[in-house]
From TrEMBL:
<dbReference type="InterPro" id="IPR013815">
    <property type="entry name" value="ATP_grasp_subdomain_1"/>
</dbReference>
<dbReference type="GO" id="GO:0004776">
    <property type="term" value="F:succinate-CoA ligase (GDP-forming) activity"/>
</dbReference>
<dbReference type="InterPro" id="IPR005809">
    <property type="entry name" value="Succ_CoA_ligase-like_bsu"/>
</dbReference>
<dbReference type="Pfam" id="PF08442">
    <property type="entry name" value="ATP-grasp_2"/>
</dbReference>
<dbReference type="GO" id="GO:0005739">
    <property type="term" value="C:mitochondrion"/>
</dbReference>
<dbReference type="GO" id="GO:0042709">
    <property type="term" value="C:succinate-CoA ligase complex"/>
</dbReference>
<dbReference type="Pfam" id="PF00549">
    <property type="entry name" value="Ligase_CoA"/>
</dbReference>
<protein>
    <recommendedName>
        <fullName>succinate--CoA ligase (GDP-forming)</fullName>
        <ecNumber>6.2.1.4</ecNumber>
    </recommendedName>
</protein>
<dbReference type="GO" id="GO:0005524">
    <property type="term" value="F:ATP binding"/>
</dbReference>
<dbReference type="GO" id="GO:0046872">
    <property type="term" value="F:metal ion binding"/>
</dbReference>
<keyword id="KW-0547">Nucleotide-binding</keyword>
<comment type="pathway">
    <text>Carbohydrate metabolism; tricarboxylic acid cycle; succinate from succinyl-CoA (ligase route): step 1/1.</text>
</comment>
<dbReference type="InterPro" id="IPR005811">
    <property type="entry name" value="SUCC_ACL_C"/>
</dbReference>
<dbReference type="InterPro" id="IPR016102">
    <property type="entry name" value="Succinyl-CoA_synth-like"/>
</dbReference>
<dbReference type="GO" id="GO:0006104">
    <property type="term" value="P:succinyl-CoA metabolic process"/>
</dbReference>
<dbReference type="InterPro" id="IPR013650">
    <property type="entry name" value="ATP-grasp_succ-CoA_synth-type"/>
</dbReference>
<keyword id="KW-0479">Metal-binding</keyword>
Amino acid sequence: MAASMASQAAARGLRTATSKHALLDKLKCTWLSPRRWLNLQEYQSKKLMQESGVAVQRFYVADTASEALEAAKRLNAKEIVLKAQILAGGRGKGVFDSGLKGGVHLTKDPAVVGELANKMLGFNLTTKQTPKDGVKVKTVMVAEALDITRETYFAILMDRSCNELIFKEAIDIFEGVRDDQALCMAANLGFKGPLQRQAADQIKRLYDLFLKVDATQVEVNPLGETPEGQVVCFDAKINFDDNAEFRQKAVFAMDDMTESDPTEMEAAKWDLKYIGLDGNIACFVNGAGVKERQVYEAFKLLTADPKVEAILVNIFGGIVNCAIIANGITKACRELELKVPLVVRLEGTNVNEAKRILTESGLPITAAENLDDAARKAVACHQEIENSQCNSVPPPTPTFILRSAPSAFSYTCRPPGL
């Protein structure tokens, strides 16, 4: 989702969380969603809302063209919307390798639903957010199409600083959403008359869902009204607290791993977070409580990528035991027979012991004093190798693998001016 003034406020708010929640609304707004490791398809989020009494479009899910046709007939709707179910955005403008254009289609003829589903299911859909070869569609959602006379944006999330252009209501987690607060939010969204009461009821139900599933965010875009006088949640994105998996087994069992990157899945086994982009300098960054085994596994994953031609380690923070990091680094270098340049910057608990371990290891490790120094040395090491191979090779490009507590590793980018 595109970043905006609202997303900037969200980014600032990621640093803190309190015992309160915030309900945000605005007529037109976008929000920056944090990356989560639980991925739900659109129909799964709608099902959770439906189970909590939130008003959504009537819908069915189909795995075959014949099931889609039967679902369209069962809906008995004036108009039907057929949606390919993949996690990537931009479905409406995507292209299937069957030749069909668009992963979202409207029709009034149930027979057309079956024909379209036949060109969707089992075929790869490519959008701006999918890999180059697209993602195979295994499920479609057949839903009642409703006209929207007015759209609003609504979200419930952990309390954070917000842009002044967004209406915000702080909710006491023990008291819950009061009637007067829900009505005020509905009014802020522009709902009037009987629609205001409907919208207030939907807001309270969404908050109940937020608590029930241990969500970190419930985002409804759009929360709209129809010509028939209904307030409907047309689309939603739900983010979950991964630490609540032990008590949200039914929700986490819905996790769709088919579109997950295999390297990301392997990293997750060791409580590591990995995101790879195009580039050739990898970076391993710290996390509180990181273990020696995690350091080894991080190096194992990084060195398995043929694009990686240099590694930068950036460890800082008072509670990070640098000696554990150093032991993990030396173990990885020896057992994996590291063949690429390694630059290490360490700062934290037992940093002197860590530096001693690295120095006495006899391994070709380049030490750095700070992040800028480490970045410059990593780029210099990489360029020295490339210059010895071919003077015409372009400078290294950035790639990132982002961290998440308790530990992580990442690719870093080349600083400006280097």
